[in-house]
Amino acid sequence: MELWFTERQTPNLSIGCRIDKTLIHERTEYQDLTIIDTLQYGRMLVLDGCVMTTEKDEFVYHEMISHVPLATHPNPKKVLVVGGGDGGVIREALRHPSVEKAVLAEIDGAVIRRSQEFLPTIAAGLKDPRAVLAVGDGVKHVKEHRGEYDVIVCDSTDPIGPAVGLFSKEFFTDAREALTPDGLFVAQSESPFLHGELIARVMKDLAAVFPVARLYWAVIPTYPGAMWTFALGSKKHDPATDFRRVEFPTKYYSPEIHRAAFVLPPFAAALVR
Predict the structure, then answer these.
(1) Is the whole model's pTM more than 0.85, yes or no?
(2) Residues annotated as part of the active site
(3) 147 and 25, same domain (yes or no)
(4) Do 153 and 67 belong to one domain?
């Protein structure tokens, strides 16, 4: 007998993966959490029926949401990750030698615990002494830490349930106030094929809050539409032109990819005009 996991990505679209075994399935305080071994993408974290990350393609998402803003900032020392309980963004952020502290503000402590247990290669950075685990509401954390962070990364789930507030203009404004004078903010912003209206709204709100607002993209096979975007707001530095070369090996990110990621296909560029 074959066992399959199917994510209903839209009412008219789904993605299916053949399962080797289910490692954990539980209802946390906030959501349904499942970790499974798939034959195509390796170990997979699923929250409320949606794929969050897989062992095979996680490096694309985690490198692009982390290194683009961190390479743009000339000397990032303090980083905040909102969401991202699997630890992948923390892992990548701490690869930058200048980073002295990386705070993980994750509302669901079970995601952190289960990721450390079942996804150790992704969660490895959470053991670093520079990593600070702040289990709780990321929106509240941002409100309470003014002028503190050089880079804020919003590694949220889709804009439903606990994550809705992370896609609001109010949150972007609070994030701006939590940044240092030359800080940067970035958030995952879904697929231009499937979530064009959301991207247009997010970019409009970011442009109203930050002097520099840019959309960039990467290819992530397990995410809806495969073409995935990131919305970046900056107080000073333009990530499309002003960035440093990183001095450590990567699997997806490079200076050339960094530059090219801001070249949007016309249909995607139309969303930010």
Answers:
(1) yes
(2) 155
(3) no
(4) yes
